[in-house]
């Protein structure tokens, strides 16, 4: 038996499908472990922040959600580039499976940002450069999902969506820069979220939560991509064999 | 080791309870509902594809 | 190369001249939207001067959106687009020509009418000049980025709304620097920095967007 681990073989949906299936519980379990450790450190052990009081504890989900929303968009753009360059079937499916999770992360980032901003800045929403960019990122996710949903042909949806992602990813730094410029012109740098003197426990709590969010996103995206695969490849033998079996 | 003196202290979050638990609650809700929705969508997709497959094999058998 | 671009421009301009009503409608849309704002927020000159750059620019973005769905749709319907895609010269050049033609019939009229509308908002002569310059410099970028969206949504149901969903977020930098130039002039800071950034955006998008649109068109035509 020379069944070596082969990346090219893994890129074919028939091989990736069962592989994803076995990996999902592991990612979910690891995410839960990181989540519990992060919550323990962040919510129970970490001391209070002397400037912000206990309200600062929102960063343990706000920052990971913001990171994930940006990171998932980059990963989607990476898959889009692979898909357009090598014409692989899997890449488009991965990008589409990631998009709803990315959009939810952007939403969570805005939601927790608002709940953090109210006690800290006295307003649910301020036109801060970061919040504004996050909102625009949410718009980009929605645009991508609307475009891929509007195209019936799966191959065209993948390619058109991929192109939009690449255009978007080039634009994200320009948008961020322009929003930042606009922000400093209009209200000066009155808001300073950066805290250089962060306690080590806080930092660890945040990193653990970020790992939890990361693993969670992978697990959910793999769940979603499996459904997309069955749908897309319904005329192939491997899907028919699975459907004839006891696929749940 | 634990920072809080009592459970009530923990719940009160130094007066920020609404904001902190509002954030964590909605996040937990979303992270619970999203996988449920995804797996429900998966089950309905599988059921639909099975029906289609059965209809196709019946047609070719006739 | 230049010949191809020129040929596409003259052809598209001729076609546009047969449909002058479309150009005029988009222009009136711009005028009406801008004129609605004082009715909504009240006639205080100080407030209007403050609002003018943003209002004029947002209206310009929306007016540009109106004509975008038609950019490739007509050529797609009568099969010209397939012919152009199969032609021996790069499709990106053809799209460059179409983008320039689109700007000549949609962006340029906006820039010409904008100073008149600026007077409604009590802008100074300096601000009016910068406003015109900013719209002249910025609208080509709108046509270029819009072409990508138009190519991606070619032939889709609900294409028009979808197009604005895709393109409007990408217009934000143009809006910020365009409105910022006028705003900086009004407040006496000088708008040169904004104008040069706007010009950079326009050059980048005119150079890059037609090729991305050409790739999107090829995907749509497959």
Overall pLDDT of chain A: 86
Terminus-to-terminus distance of chain B: 74 Å
- The sequence of SSEs of chain A as H and E is HHHHHHHH
Q: Looking at the chains present, what oligomeric state does this protein adopt?
A: heterotrimer
- Supply the helix-strand structural class of chain B: mainly alpha
Gyration radius of chain A, rounded: 21 Å
Distance between the termini of chain A: 30 Å
Question: Averaged pLDDT of chain B, please?
Answer: 86
Classification by helices and strands of chain A: mainly alpha
Identify low-pLDDT runs of chain B: none
Helical coverage of chain A, percent range: over 70%
Q: Specify the biggest β-sheet of chain A.
A: none
State the shape of chain A: globular
Proportion of residues in extended strands of chain A: under 5%
Descriptive notes:
The complex is a heterotrimer of chains A (248), B (62) and C (222). Helix content of chain A is 79%, strand content 0%. Chain A has 248 residues and is mainly α. In chain A, helix 2 (13-45) runs antiparallel to helix 7, helix 3 crosses helix 6 (154-187) and helix 4 runs parallel beside helix 6 (154-187). Chain B starts with 6 loop residues before the first helix and ends with a helix. Chain B contains 2 helices and no strands. Chain C is mainly alpha-helical and 222 residues long. In chain C, 86% of the residues lie in helices and 0% in strands. The radius of gyration of chain C is 18 Å and the shape is elongated. The two termini of chain C are 25 Å apart. Chain A binds chain B through residues 43-48, 53-55, 57-58, 61-62, 65, 100-101, 104, 107-108, 111-112, 115-116, 118-119, 216, 219-220, 223-224, 226-227, 230-231, 234, 239-240, 243-244, 247-248, and chain B through 1-4, 10, 13-16, 19-20, 22-24, 26-27, 30-31, 34-35, 38-39, 41-43, 45-46, 49-50, 52-53.
């Amino acid at each position: 038996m020379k069944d070596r681990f082969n990346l090219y073989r893994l890129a074919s949906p028939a091989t990736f499908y069962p592989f994803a299936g076995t990996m999902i519980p592991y990612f979910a379990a690891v995410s839960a472990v990181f989540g519990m450790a992060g919550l323990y450190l962040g919510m129970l052990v970490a001391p209070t922040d002397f400037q912000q009081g206990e309200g600062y504890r929102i960063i343990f989900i706000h920052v990971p959600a913001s990171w994930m929303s940006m990171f998932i968009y980059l990963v989607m753009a990476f898959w889009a580039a692979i898909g357009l360059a090598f014409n692989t079937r899997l890449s488009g499916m991965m990008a589409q499976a990631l998009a709803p999770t990315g959009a939810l992360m952007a939403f969570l980032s805005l939601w927790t940002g608002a709940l953090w901003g109210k006690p800290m800045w006295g307003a649910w929403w301020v036109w801060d450069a970061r919040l504004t960019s996050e909102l625009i990122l949410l718009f980009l996710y929605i645009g991508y999902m609307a475009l891929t949903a509007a195209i019936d042909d799966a191959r065209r949806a993948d390619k058109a969506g991929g192109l939009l992602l690449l255009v978007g990813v080039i634009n994200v730094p320009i948008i961020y820069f322009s929003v930042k410029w606009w922000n400093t012109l209009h209200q000066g740098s009155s808001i300073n979220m950066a805290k250089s003197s962060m306690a080590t426990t806080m930092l660890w709590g945040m990193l653990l939560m970020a790992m939890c969010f990361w693993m969670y996103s992978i697990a959910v995206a793999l769940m979603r991509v499996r459904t997309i695969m069955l749908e897309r490849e319904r005329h192939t033998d491997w899907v028919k064999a699975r459907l004839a079996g006891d696929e749940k | 080791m634990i920072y809080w003196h009592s459970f009530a202290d923990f719940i009160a979050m130094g007066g920020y309870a609404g904001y902190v638990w509002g954030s964590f609650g909605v996040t937990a809700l979303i992270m619970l509902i999203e996988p449920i929705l995804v797996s429900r969508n998966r089950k309905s997709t599988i059921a639909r594809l099975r029906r289609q497959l059965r209809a196709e094999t019946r047609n070719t058998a006739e | 190369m230049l010949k191809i671009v020129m040929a596409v421009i003259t052809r598209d301009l001729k076609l546009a001249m047969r449909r002058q009503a479309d150009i005029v409608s988009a222009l009136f849309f711009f005028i009406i939207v801008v004129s609605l704002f004082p009715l909504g927020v009240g006639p205080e000159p100080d407030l209007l001067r403050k609002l003018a750059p943003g209002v004029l620019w947002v209206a310009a973005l929306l007016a540009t959106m109106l004509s975008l769905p038609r950019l490739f749709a007509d050529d797609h319907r009568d099969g010209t687009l397939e012919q152009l895609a199969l032609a021996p010269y790069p499709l990106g050049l053809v799209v460059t020509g179409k983008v320039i033609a689109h700007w000549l019939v949609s962006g340029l009229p906006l820039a010409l009418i904008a100073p008149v509308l600026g007077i409604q908002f009590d802008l100074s002569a300096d601000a009016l000049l910068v406003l015109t310059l900013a719209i002249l410099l910025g609208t080509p970028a709108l046509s270029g980025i819009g072409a990508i969206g138009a190519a991606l949504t070619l032939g889709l149901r609900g294409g028009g709304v979808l197009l604005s969903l895709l393109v409007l977020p990408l217009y934000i930098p143009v809006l910020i620097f365009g409105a910022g130039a006028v705003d900086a002039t009004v407040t006496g800071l000088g708008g040169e920095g904004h104008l040069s950034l706007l010009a950079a955006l326009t050059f980048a998008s005119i150079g890059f967007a037609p090729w991305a649109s050409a790739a999107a068109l090829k995907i749509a035509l497959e």
